[in-house]
Design a protein that fits this description.
With 216 residues, the chain is α+β, with helices and mostly antiparallel strands. It contains five helices and eight strands; from the N terminus they run ααβββαββββαβα.
């Protein structure tokens, strides 16, 4: 028997839009701090999307300042010296012992904001230019998000995002897509004539995150 059969199992990497909305709305009511949004919404989403990418890790680097440097670890590889670190690091073949470790592929960093305390979705992106510029000086790719609006940056394009995806409509409500239920289900199981489906923006976001962070 192949001892690596467990590694060959493909797991479901989908993250439902309805669950995502519930998470965001819930923490906006009970705990809207940035660290909560980072650890309870953004990290679980990324972990799920990359569940079948065994070599890719999502690492919390939000506290990795200069004083975290040691004989085996150098924060300056992903953080400009004497500046605040990004919140998350996405890396392939991650190892905390990163000094002289050429196996690690630093894919991107993620800057997370609270949609309540420091929103991105209803603000001019220029408000965050300083942070994004600083992160891009060290990293090739940066993501800025408050869970409602997602902006993707690449070093060669500077402060002009290569992609922007918003999950709110023009009235600052969650985007939704109503779909028709097949008549057979309405008649036989008495389903409602319409149901809420996942909007194209959500599917586009999940797909683009995978492509952007995988280097495609």
């Amino acid at each position: 028997m192949n001892e690596n059969w467990v590694d060959s199992i493909v797991q479901d990497n989908t993250f439902s839009y309805s669950y995502y909305k519930k998470l965001v709305d819930n923490y906006l009511e009970i705990d809207w701090r940035e660290i909560t949004i980072q650890n309870r919404v953004v990290t679980p989403l990324l972990d799920r999307l990359f569940i079948n990418e065994k070599d890719i890790s999502i690492i919390d680097i939000s506290t990795q300042y200069d004083n975290k440097n040691s004989k085996i670890h150098d924060t300056r590889i992903y953080r400009k010296e004497k500046t605040s670190p990004p919140d998350l690091l996405v890396a392939r073949h991650w190892n905390y012992a990163n000094i002289d470790n050429d196996k690690i592929d630093y894919l991107a960093v993620v800057e997370v904001k609270s949609p309540s305390l420091d929103p991105v979705y209803n603000k001019d992106k220029n408000k965050f230019d300083g942070q994004i510029k600083t992160h891009l000086e060290v990293n090739d790719k940066v993501i800025l998000t408050d869970c409602i609006k997602w902006l993707f940056f690449e070093k060669e394009y500077g402060l002009d995002p290569v992609k922007t995806i918003s999950l709110f409509d023009e009235n600052n409500n969650w985007k939704r897509k109503d779909a028709k239920t097949p008549e057979s289900l309405i008649e036989e199981i008495q389903f409602e004539p319409t149901y809420e489906d996942e909007p194209k923006d959500w599917n586009q976001l999940c797909k683009y995150i995978l492509e952007f962070l995988n280097g495609n």
